[in-house]
Amino acid sequence: NFNVKIGFSEPRSGGKANAMIAGVLEYGKHGQPPRPFMKPAMSSSKADAIRAMEDAYDREVDNL
Predict the structure, then answer these.
(1) pTM score, two decimals?
(2) Measured between alpha carbons, how far is 23 from 29 in angstroms, rounded to an integer?
């Protein structure tokens, strides 16, 4: 059994929310070009994540 937290650790020093800063970095804003980090990470790990879920599913079904 795993407990996985997905998100941004808060609070951030300086008062701005990590999620807001991440959104600006990912998509940019007026005068600031995007610097994506979430989409490339998701794209590069998608096949491995699917494979891990399939393996976990198969193990659970085999143990029924």
Answers:
(1) 0.59
(2) 9
